[in-house]
Design goal:
CATH architecture of the largest domain: 7 Propeller
Shape: elongated
CATH topology of the largest domain: Methylamine Dehydrogenase, Chain H
Radius of gyration: 26 Å
Number of strands: 36
Strand order of the largest sheet: 34-33-32-29-30-36-35
Largest sheet: 7 strands, antiparallel
Length: 422
């Protein structure tokens, strides 16, 4: 989790730096009949300095308070409500950009193929706010159409996102901005081809789409899960029913259940909550990862199973593997770095020990040796549903805590891989 937060902080700093470079970019007046007010201060009751006509370009745009944008127009500096402004990428993009030129504009949100089209969405990274631009290309990478969002204040509660929705036969672009979820047809008329739009408050960090086009969204904090029908109707809204889980980051849709994974929960463990599809009722809260690995101060004793696979008695460390449910075919491995690839770190391995089962009544206490500066210990097991789990162990450079990261066994090479982005 600490690495996740560190990554988010680095991403935020990168967006801030990029936004500073684009601070003088222009925005167009939109979403009004004839004109909008340029006001003396960021308040709807402040003195009007000018009437800025529809389609006018304002410059030196920066996010201000009360949902206003600070900007300049015809020598006057003032404030316009953000909902009446859209970014104008023409000052940094050609009229018909290539995919490479668009991706250079900001951070990619979506890059996907839908039918005959490729749709790319980027976050333009303006100061303290979010602005998304979407461009549709054909399969040869030629420009087809585009649209841009208004600017919205960047918060953890209402982050923008875009993803593919609809069905395989009839896909659409799902566009979450300003606490509104909208569905657009993808093609030459994107931006003018909205299927539907529905207010969805406080969501947007994680999402999933069912085979029939039903959308599920959830926000960053305690997390209200929202189900939206293919026609754009909110079917139900619900939460985990507890304050013990937070930071939802993944949604998985099953036949009659929705599984939401939270990065933290009771005892600071990842938690998976099972919601019923029909009405959003909570059916189960369980650790998302069946086995928790943590430090032991000393050898365990008691009902613990104990193994000693340490290579150096002076460097021995005690690690507890505590399952929340019985697991079988539990194995410990030593890792040796094999290679760094563009998409993964590859490890060779040696089996240190194998146990038929590890249970909550008989957890495992292992004496191991952490060798070198790269992860050197891994473990694997099978849960009650025959899912195979495999993780590497690492020591946090911040506080010395024990952390885990997912590993995959490549069937072609029979080596462990840590894949970037997983």
């Amino acid at each position: 989790m600490k690495k996740l937060l560190c990554g988010l902080l680095c991403a935020a700093l990168l967006l801030c730096a990029l936004g500073t470079a684009l601070a003088s970019r222009g925005m167009r007046v939109t979403n009004c009949k004839e004109w909008v007010s340029l006001r003396q201060s960021p308040n709807e009751s402040a003195k009007r300095l000018a009437k800025v006509p529809l389609g006018a370009l304002v410059t030196d745009c920066e996010w201000a308070e009360n949902d206003f944008i600070a900007c300049a127009w015809e020598g006057k500096n003032g404030y316009i409500l953000a909902k009446y402004l859209e970014t104008d990428p023409l000052d940094v993009l050609p009229e018909k950009p290539t995919p490479e030129e668009l991706l250079a504009l900001g951070s990619p949100v979506l890059d996907a193929v839908a039918g005959d089209w490729r749709v790319i969405v980027v976050d333009e990274g303006m100061p303290d706010c979010e602005v998304m631009t979407a461009v549709v290309f054909d399969r040869q990478g030629r420009f087809v159409s585009r649209m841009a969002s208004a600017a919205f204040e960047q918060t953890e509660l209402s982050a923008m996102t875009a993803f593919l929705g609809g069905t395989a036969e009839n896909p659409c672009l799902m566009w979450f901005a300003g606490e509104t979820l909208s569905a657009y047809d993808i093609g030459p008329a994107i931006g003018d081809s909205m299927r539907w739009s529905v207010p969805v408050q406080g969501a947007g960090m994680a999402h999933a789409v069912d085979a029939d086009g039903t959308v599920y969204l959830i926000g960053y904090y305690a997390g209200r899960l929202i189900r939206v029908s293919p026609e754009g109707r909110v079917v139900w809204e619900t939460d985990a029913g507890t304050e013990e889980v937070w930071w939802p980051y993944r949604i998985a849709v099953k036949e009659d259940r929705v599984l939401v994974t939270y990065a933290a929960g009771s005892e600071d463990r990842e938690t998976r909550v099972t919601f019923r599809k029909s009405d959003g009722a909570v059916e189960d809260l369980a650790p998302a990862i069946p086995v928790l690995a943590q430090w032991l101060e000393d050898a365990a004793g008691g009902n613990w199973q104990e193994v000693d696979v340490s290579a150096d008695e002076d460097e021995a460390a005690y690690v507890a593997f505590v399952p929340s449910e019985p697991v079988t075919f539990f194995q410990l491995f030593s890792l040796t770095l094999d290679e760094f690839r563009d998409d993964a770190v590859v490890y060779d391995y040696e089996v240190l020990c194998t146990l038929d089962s590890v249970t909550p009544d008989a957890p495992l206490a292992a004496t191991v040796t952490f060798a070198g500066d790269t992860p050197s210990i891994a473990f694997l097991y099978t849960d009650a549903e025959d899912n195979v789990w495999c993780f590497g162990l690492d020591i946090s450079g911040e506080d010395g805590s024990l952390t885990t990261f997912p590993l995959y066994i490549n069937p072609d090479t029979d080596l462990f891989e840590f894949r970037y982005g997983d």
